[in-house]
Amino acid sequence: MHKLYNYAATGLLLFIIIFLPISLQAYPQHTPHWTKVEQIFLASSGRQPGYSHEYAPVIETRNQYELGKLTAMRFIEWAKDHPNGVIALSNGNTPEYFIKFLRFYKKNWHKPHVQAELQSFGIKLKSFPDTSNLKFVQIEESYPLSASHYKSVSNYLKRHYIQVLGIKKQNTLLMDLTSKGIIAEKGLKVVFMSGKVDLSIMHHKPSSQLEAWQQQAIKELRAFCAEYENKIRAWGGIDFFVGTLSYGGHFGSIPPGSAFDSKTQIVKLDYMSAAHAAKDMGGIEHARGKINVTIGMGSISLKPNAVLIISAAGESKAEVVRDSVENQITRRYPATILQRFPNARFYVTAGAAKLLDDRRTEDVQVKTKFGWTQALIREVVIEIAQAESKAILMLTPNDLEKYARGRLLLENPPKPLAAMLLDVHNNLIRHIENGIKISATKAKKILHTGPHHDDIMLGYYPVMDVLSFKFQNNFAYLTSGYNSVSDAYIMSILNRASDWWLNKEENNIFRTSYDKIINKFINYYVKQDIEQMALLDTTIALRHLVSVYDIKNLDQLKQTIRWLKDDYFPNKHPGNGDEQNIKLLKGMMRESEVDRMWSLKNFSLHNVHHLRSEFYNGKEFAKTPGIDTDVLPFLRLYNEFKPDIITVADDPNSAPPVTHYKVLQIIAQALRHKDAVAKENLQIWGYRNVWFRYRVQDANMLIPVSEQMLENQRKVFLACFNTQKEASFPSPFFEGDFSALSAKIQREQYATLNTLLGEEYFTKNLIPEIRNAVGFIYMNRMTLDQFFQRAEDLQHNAEVEDFFAGDTA
Question: pTM of the prediction?
Fold first, then answer.
């Protein structure tokens, strides 16, 4: 593990060599004073100290692991000089490695290699800084939610910060919103029995005793906010703050448009915020209708010299990072207020920084030192054509001159502009032809892989009309997917199982073969008998229930159903984990959904494989995949089937969802394994669906989709994926079912190509598939070496997991 420390020892030297000769570009607001820790990480990033279009200081790290290490090192650097300071630290997935490094350093401070690293960062202490006298301020909390709930923010902070840092109880300012007043007197489930809050009731007289209690609860909540704000100010304000950005531009929970002097306040969750919070709340059905209590921007910025850090990880945060860094101070992007403060910083991963304009131009400059490649020309030309909403062949030198990367291309063009544009235009057409001829390959076997059970459906289901006839197809689903099955869905199934119906269905539940049950589903689907398909969904669920609990007869089944309906689910807090048998039941329901889907395409159930990878465990911080538990089961399937093509969900390393990327790692590691069957011409077909999209310049198989294909996709999704019709964890960017979002994306991808190639290319095309297209699926065909380049080595991550073993809660 000494490799993890190598760059630290040389970082400062690199900084001096690389950056001192460069004239520092001043920020419009201030030039930052980088600490020694920041200097080393800045040098390691290979980036300049500042860029002309960035209004706030940014340190870019390679990945979330380095982001956590930077944040932890900066905190330790600060804490050693401020033992009585006031801190406020964020919750969620982003701080995972920040938390793990804090634990690691506290436990291993005296080890020689740790001491050597700390001293290279200028931290010369005999022991971990004394943090017992720090004061801790909670940033936000959901309401109505008991502070004792495992998924409450205050519980998270106690587990991961307050206990680790040994902060005294009297020095913690936490948001316990339910232990006093009317909520404590009447009970949370009485006052807000639905778990939702309607703030509009404050605008009229109460029409019932319940409304009167709810109004009182909201008044008490407002009083809490005022008192909480006064306590922050009595402590003098926050000295060290680490916050995050949401997709919609929220600064923590502070919404766009908030006043820069805003105080602790009540914030109603919009759809995007509720979808983002769904993971912690047990699903969108529980997050929707909740509110947040959050400190305000004025609360955060009381001290002009406070250390204010925004931490952002993954490509999903790239847009909001760009908007917060490249815009001058505006209420539209609350985090821009940090430009006023000399010790404010953005710590971001490379993925989160990928849309920062000057950095993208710098990357192009580096790549073109030895000349322009076709890929780089395509990148720049398509980007400018999209920005100008022009066909590629209609671009002019004036269009390119508007953009820094366009000017670079014009300064040293490898050929005349018209020729370059024609090359890019023809390249796109070749990629469409690749999509049309997707079956014209010598390959015979395809192994389709999906992290979750609807990933293939949402990624490229229309393509299966071609692939099912041309190839031998097998399907591997690497997780059980139980996390996305809501309690409400299971309850709806149990409620359909009346005693009368159970008596009638006893034979199908206990004795009929699974194959025959699936054949019944096919018949109902052909007839579009929605009611019978729903009842069959209940039959399948109860068959799984019988299997999971080893139920022998109908009386035991009825007793188990009553227990689940009357005891287990009513007493389970939304967001809390399930017992192992319920996880298994939910996972089996997801598995049965794809069994049904592929049976409609006449695939045998023997072609569908459910691997149930063990890394998928629903824990707060997702487990790193293991070689024995996760990689080898896939390797055995690969060696048995010996495919010529493997499809892979090719999502970047980002969260959420991290599952896609971890499955990509598993597949890459399996193919690297010494026991993997060698396939000289093995192809990897990358796909994306509703979580991330390929840019058109990143895909090389562009497959046209007709209106009928989209309609078929939607019908199959709604018939088979009952657990996902109203997804518990939906996209924050689209309110609707996943099949509608998938169709929307495919239509937008067609619109992109229509702009780039011109409408006439489609309307007058002699190829019917192109002429009749209303959507496009983007896929990326890779060689094995290209795929390995895209996949971070799992072995390294396994070492990281071992590195932290025993140091996390």
Answer: 0.90
CA-to-CA distance for 454 and 722, rounded, in angstroms? 11
Work out the burial of residue 179: count CB atoms within 10 Å of its CB; fewer than 13 is exposed, 13-18 middle, 19 or more buried.
Answer: exposed
CA 371 to CA 367: how far, in whole Å? Answer: 8
Distance between CA atoms of 637 and 447, rounded to whole angstroms?
9
CA distance 236 to 285: 39
Residue for token digits 């109460």? 206
What is the crossing angle of helices 514-527 and 580-599, to 10°? 60
CA angle 529, 531, 535 (to 5 degrees): 120
**CA distances to 151, 220, 596, 776 from 470, in Å:** 48, 66, 21, 21
Of 314, 274, 317, the closest CA to residue 729 belongs to 274
By DSSP bridging, strand 291-294 and strand 265-268 are antiparallel
Query: Nearest-5° angle of CA 777, CA 783, CA 786?
Result: 95
Class at the top of the CATH hierarchy for domain 2-357: alpha beta
Backbone angles phi, psi at 620, to 5 degrees: -60, -45
Burial class (CB in 10 A: 0-12, 13-18, 19+), 415: exposed
The radius of gyration of the chain from alpha carbons, rounded to an integer in Å, stands at: 28
CA distances 599 to 449, 590, 612, Å, are 17, 15, 21
Query: In this structure, are residues 11 and 39 in contact, taking their beta carbons and an 8 Å threshold?
Result: yes
Read off the tokens for 360.
Answer: 């993208």
The alpha carbon of residue 227 and the mean position of all alpha carbons in its chain are separated, in whole angstroms, by 35
Residue with tokens 């699903």: 283
pLDDT digits (tens, 9 = 90+) for 9-47: 444 433 333 333 333 333 444 578 999 999 999 999 999
Higher local confidence (pLDDT), 271 or 483: 483
Is the torsion defined by CA of 568, 571, 575, 579 positive or negative? Answer: negative
- The CA distance from 70 to 66, in Å, is 6
Whether the CB-CB separation of 637 and 677 falls below 8 Å is answered with no
| Rounded distance between C-alpha atoms, residue 680 and residue 687, angstroms | 22
Helical H segments across 175-292, by residue range? 181-186, 188-191, 209-234, 271-281, 284-287
pLDDT tens string 647-681 = 999 988 765 457 898 899 999 999 999 999 988 89
Separation in Å, CA 708 to CA 82, 447, 524, 705, 749: 65, 26, 21, 8, 17
Whole-number Å distance between alpha carbons of 240 and 85: 8
Q: What is the pLDDT of residue 354?
A: 94
Q: Are the C-beta atoms of 627 and 669 separated by less than 8 Å? A: yes
Output phi, psi for 60, to 5 deg: -105, 130
